[in-house]
Specification:
With 1120 residues, this protein is of the alpha/beta class. It contains 39 helices and 22 strands. It folds into three domains: 404 residues, Up-down Bundle (Amino acid/polyamine transporter I), CATH 1.20.1740.10; 227 residues, no CATH class; 415 residues, no CATH class. The strands form six sheets. The protein has a ten-stranded mixed beta sheet with strand order 5-4-3-6-7-22-21-8-11-12, sandwiched between helices. The protein starts with a helix and ends in a 10-residue tail after the last strand.
């Protein structure tokens, strides 16, 4: 029924059962079962040829002939006679299907006559007994039938080659090949005029006729011949027939027909296999004659294999043939079952007398019978099937046959996608959306992203820019196909999402919003770094700073190593890129503009709030070297081949999770406010998470080691930072080596020049001056240090607030607006952004503060107004900071005009009491006490607060009594920027709940006003001291205006960090670090966009392949 159902569901071509199965279950199942079934047919052909000779020997053998004894019957003589029969049948098959059909018809008549003569003889033949032949014929007798009805298994029966007692398994294995004719019609499918109609009709009618005739023969013999006769006489059917000759002719006819059918059917199956090109080396047997497409070569090879099969024992052959037939029945029923349960609309067979229950029952019965008959043979057959399945799967290109697995996968995927909800953080994994323009240039980045996804979703996004949607649709369809071919070519596991849009940013937005399905959506977007070098070449007049030239670019820095280090992985990549890629025929898209790029980055980070990573330098990525095979290791052990040159030249995956912080104010309905320091815990931990995930990929784990690199500004913080980072890694179960660097060590030339005002060498000064040439704050600082600035600059320095430096490093270091107040005065003429962007950034910071620890605002309400007095000035200066937040790290734009020096960027309307002013930890004497030796200052004492919060009392009485009206609930006091403060200690949540399970313990911190900044002139002790620290004596000369890393604008910070990271990355394969987010509205100005990208270029210049990461969601947990 299953064969009939499949055969009537469409067009059937040559190949028989193989064709039916392969077009239903796919090339792997079809090819594997096709080869197994071919072997079974060949063995069955040999068995039938040997069986024909056995009939002759039993009648005419020299030793055991029943009629005469003239035919030599030794093993090799029998093999010769079987060979002659096989040659004759093969010749008939080579002569063509016409002769075969005529011969088959004649043999069919003889076979039917001989078969029906058996029950006829039982009716007409009189009872007799022959002691010579060992026959007792009783005629039709109920007693005889009853004695033969029940089984009585013995051993030593005539013709039996079994050494022990017969079993049901032995009998079944020997007799089952007689049912192999069920596939006789299907095997001739290529020669049938209407196979879809002829196969089910012929198969079912043939089965019915066979069942009736077999039943009549069995009952006739069981009712007329005693059990002892069956046991002693092997030729009993012929001896109890009215004509022994007709039985002998029937034996010749059935054996000859089976040999003919076996040769031609097996050859047709092999021809179909070869033409489908599933197994390497079989294509030659796909040949067919011009006239009737006769498989000449396949017939010849079938004859040769059958000739070898005849050397085996006939009973062993029968057992193996039984296994192959049962396997074919199982797979056929399985195919019908899957087609039915898959509910494919196009599965509408004309044969209706089946259902999934009959198919399932047939498959189950076939599988169970295989192991019932012979477990060893069944296991060998299954093992052979699996091996062939794997060979075809890994060596055969995909076929467009539409196998049923696609329908089943679709059904199950749809079912479980509907059940898939937002993934729990415990099972978070990076689902990557990678925007790609040129797949050839991004080949290694695509391979890297494929490794990074860790079994999650991977989508390649591409935007076709066109105003003509109708005209771009054909191109989109072509590219969909070429991108799919590219995925197969590069052996990655990804999907493709192509959008058509008039502008690239709109297309990217659409892809980001629509990518994925149901609960499977990307959670991190990766973009290539903007190509500023091409922008410099295409627009040479644009105001774009050049990167510092004394450090080599990533490509240059790695090319030398690459020349002396050629690995198999690099050779494979090179050969692939040298060949033609499927996507080479795609229409080339133009480069994205800087404004569009930054606008897209803002949309992803600030509006869609998705995790974003920017990749730079991945064309120079050193992919992990392939693992040497056992054979290569053996050759290396024998010193025949050296495999050491195939190890990677790079050794490390480096993680640089840089802290970023910004200060905001929070208030409630009462007149209370507090300054809160926001940290980038999400980004910090995402960098650790992605590095750990990449290191779990076997090839990367074998080739590289994982390092976590962090930095502080002063040596006294190194061990504290190391302990806190190690504690965080322990809580996150990340095994990595921790390296802690301190900026004020004296080894960073850019730090010494910028922060401490020391003289650097020519290359360092050239780098600094070329990088900061447009930074007016730097020009002013240099002017003050050189003593060439007017007294206004000195007055600006003298007006710095007491709390200008970062807070004590015993807790989370914070920086309020006062930290930058004096620096802003020196950057008075710097480029300003539109004031409207301030409200947008405040909105962004408001969203960021939504993840602060619970109870923070309630804790603020518990404070009295007296303790809040230090925040009123923050409110006013915070407004100024919000207005001018864009000036940090900005240079003069094309439309800027120099401002008069008399204008004060940091004007404060409230009255000021005379006091000393401090900048970067260095105290300047006030107007009333500016005397030599008064350069020392002190920090106010710390006051411990609950939950790790800290505050400081203000010593300014005039400021203490001042109150102001409350501002907005959240107000930004400083920009998000890098900080060299120690990482806050890790806090593990003690309650199971929807909130984060791990966080920084000091994430919210009250900003202290009077906590002095630490410079190289003032180092705090490792442990808190009850007395105030004593700075170095003497007031530094004006040419040494000391700063602090946290005080610096981002461009200067990037320059210093770049030198640090480059020095530590000589053996780094890939690097992960923090991506500074652009201020909302940056993309509205081309100059601001270029400036932002230029700042990132300063950070990344000369580094190995680097992935800049910014997170908007929690990705780690400590929950079970």
């Amino acid at each position: 029924m299953s064969v009939s159902a499949i055969a009537t569901n469409g067009t059937v071509r040559g190949g028989g059962a193989y064709y039916l199965i392969s077009r239903s279950l796919g090339p792997e199942f079809g090819g594997a079962i096709g080869i197994v079934f071919y072997i079974g047919c060949v063995f069955n052909t040999g068995m039938n040829a040997v069986g024909l000779i056995d009939c002759l020997i039993y009648n005419f053998g020299a030793k055991s002939g029943g009629w005469s004894q003239w035919l030599p019957d030794s093993f090799w003589w029998s093999y010769l006679w079987a060979t002659i029969v096989l040659v004759i049948c093969t010749g008939i098959c080579l002569a063509g299907s016409g002769l075969f059909a005529r011969a088959s018809n004649g043999l069919l008549v003889i076979l039917l006559a001989a078969t029906f003569s058996i029950p006829f003889s039982a009716l007409v033949l009189k009872p007799f007994t022959s002691e010579r032949l060992g026959i007792e014929y009783t005629g039709p007798s109920l007693e005889t039938l009853r004695s033969n009805l029940m089984p009585r298994l013995t051993k030593g029966a005539a013709g039996s080659q079994l050494h022990g007692r017969e079993t049901w398994q032995d009998l079944f294995g020997i007799l089952f090949p007689a049912t192999g004719g069920i596939f006789a019609g299907a095997s001739m499918s290529g020669d049938l005029k209407h196979p879809s109609k002829a196969i089910p009709k012929g198969t079912l009618y043939g089965l019915a006729l066979t069942f009736v005739t077999y039943t009549l023969v069995i009952l006739a013999l069981a009712a007329t011949v005693t059990r002892a006769t069956f046991y002693n006489n092997l030729n009993v059917i012929q001896d109890v027939n009215i004509s022994g000759g007709i039985i002998l002719m029937g034996e010749f006819a059935t054996s000859s027909f089976s040999v003919l059918m076996g040769v031609i059917g097996s050859a047709k199956l092999l021809q179909a296999l070869a033409r489908d090109d599933l197994v390497p080396g079989l294509s030659i047997f796909g040949q067919g004659t011009k006239g009737n497409d006769e498989p000449t070569y396949a017939i010849i090879i079938t004859y040769a294999v059958t000739q070898l099969a005849m050397l085996s024992d006939i009973n062993q052959i029968a057992s193996f043939v039984t296994m192959t037939y049962l396997m074919t029945f199982l797979i056929t029923n399985l195919a019908c079952f899957l087609l039915k349960v898959g509910s494919a609309p196009n599965f509408r067979p004309s044969f209706h007398y089946f259902n999934w229950q009959t198919a399932a029952l047939g498959a189950t019965a076939s599988g169970a019978t295989m192991f019932f008959v012979d477990g060893v043979y069944a296991s060998l057959c299954v093992g052979l099937l699996v091996a062939l399945f794997l060979v075809i799967h890994y060596t055969t290109p995909p076929k467009s046959w539409g196998d049923v697995s696609q329908s089943l996968i679709f059904h199950q995927v749809r079912k479980y996608l509907l059940r898939l909800r937002q993934n729990h953080i415990k099972f978070w994994r990076p689902s990557v959306l990678l925007f790609v323009n040129d797949p050839r240039r991004s080949y290694k980045l695509i391979q890297f992203s494929n490794s990074l996804k860790k079994g999650a979703l991977f989508i390649l996004g591409h935007v076709i820019v066109s105003d003509d949607f109708a005209g771009a649709v054909p191109e989109a369809r072509r590219q969909q196909a070429t991108w799919t071919n590219y995925i197969d070519f590069s052996k990655i596991k990804a999907f493709v999402n192509i959008a058509i849009s008039p502008a690239v940013e709109w297309g990217a937005r659409n892809i980001a919003l629509s990518a994925g399905l149901g609960g499977m959506r990307p959670n991190i977007v990766i973009m290539g770094f903007f190509n500023l070098n091409d922008l410099r070449k295409s627009q040479p007049l644009i105001d774009l700073p050049s990167p510092h030239s004394s450090r080599p670019n990533s490509a240059a820095g790695q090319s030398d190593n690459r020349k002396h280090h050629t690995k198999r992985s690099e050779q494979e990549v090179f050969s692939k890129l040298q060949s033609k890629l499927p996507t080479d025929i795609n229409r080339a898209e133009g480069a994205i503009g800087p404004q569009s790029y930054v606008t897209l980055l803002e949309d992803l980070l600030l509006r869609l709030r998705i995790n974003v990573a920017i990749a730079k330098g991945f064309s120079e990525l050193e992919l992990p070297a392939p693992k040497p095979t056992k054979f290569e290791r053996a050759l290396s052990w024998l010193h025949v081949k050296d495999i050491m040159d195939e190890e990677n030249s790079k050794k490390y995956i480096d993680l640089w999770p840089i802290q970023m912080s910004a200060q905001i104010t929070t208030d409630d309905n009462s007149r209370q406010k507090r300054s809160i320091l926001t940290t980038n815990f999400d980004t910090y931990t995402l960098i650790l998470q992605l590095g750990c995930i990449l290191h779990t990929v076997p090839s990367y784990k074998r080739a590289f080691k994982l390092r976590v690199n962090v930095f502080v500004e002063y040596e006294s913080d190194v061990e504290e930072e190391r302990g806190r980072v190690q504690s965080l890694l322990t809580n996150l179960r990340i095994d990595a080596k921790v390296l802690v660097f301190w900026l004020a060590s004296g080894s960073l030339k850019t730090y010494e020049v910028i922060v401490n005002g020391k003289d650097g060498d020519e290359a360092t000064m050239r780098d600094i001056n070329s990088t900061l040439e447009d930074e007016e704050w730097w020009q002013d600082v240099q002017a003050v240090r050189n003593g060439a600035e007017s007294s206004d600059a000195l007055n600006d320095m003298a007006e710095l607030d007491e709390g200008a430096g970062p807070p004590s490093q015993a807790s989370q270091e914070t920086s309020t607006t006062a930290n930058f107040e004096g620096l802003r005065k020196l950057m008075q003429k710097a480029h300003r952004q539109a004031a409207g962007a301030s409200s947008a950034l405040a909105t962004e910071m408001r969203a960021q503060t939504s993840s602060l620890i619970p109870g923070l605002l309630e804790y603020h309400r518990s404070f009295g107004s007296e303790s809040e007095s230090s925040s009123d000035s923050d409110s006013e200066s915070g407004e100024s900071a919000t207005t001018e937040f864009g000036i940090v790290g900005r240079g003069r734009g094309s439309d800027d005009r120099p401002k008069p020096r008399s204008m004060s960027l940091g004007t404060n309307p409230r009255p000021q009491a005379p006091r000393k002013h401090q900048f970067g930890g260095l105290l300047f004497p006030g107007p009333a006490d500016r005397q030599p030796g008064h350069g020392q200052g002190h920090r106010a004492s710390d006051t411990a607060l609950p939950d790790g919060l800290e505050t400081n009392s203000d010593t300014d009485d005039a400021r203490r009594g001042t109150t102001f009206s409350r501002p907005a609930p959240l107000r930004q006091l400083s920009l998000p920027k890098f900080t060299a403060s120690t990482v806050p200690p890790t806090k593990i949540s003690t309650q199971d709940g929807p909130g984060p399970s791990i966080m920084f313990a000091d994430t919210p911190t009250l900003a202290g006003r009077n906590e002095g900044s630490h410079s190289i002139y003032t180092h705090r002790p490792a442990a808190p001291s009850p007395s105030a620290p004593v700075p170095a004596g003497g007031f530094p000369a004006m040419q040494s205006v000391p700063l602090n890393f946290n005080d610096l604008p981002c461009r200067a910070q990037h320059l210093i960090l770049n030198e640090l990271i480059v020095a530590q990355s000589t053996e780094t394969a890939v690097l992960f670090t923090t991506l500074p987010s652009p201020v909302e509205g940056t993309g509205e100005s081309e100059a601001d966009s270029v400036r932002y990208l230029s700042d990132l270029e300063v950070l990344c210049n000369g580094l190995p392949p680097v992935l800049l990461i910014h997170s908007n969601s929690m990705t780690v947990t400590t929950n079970l």
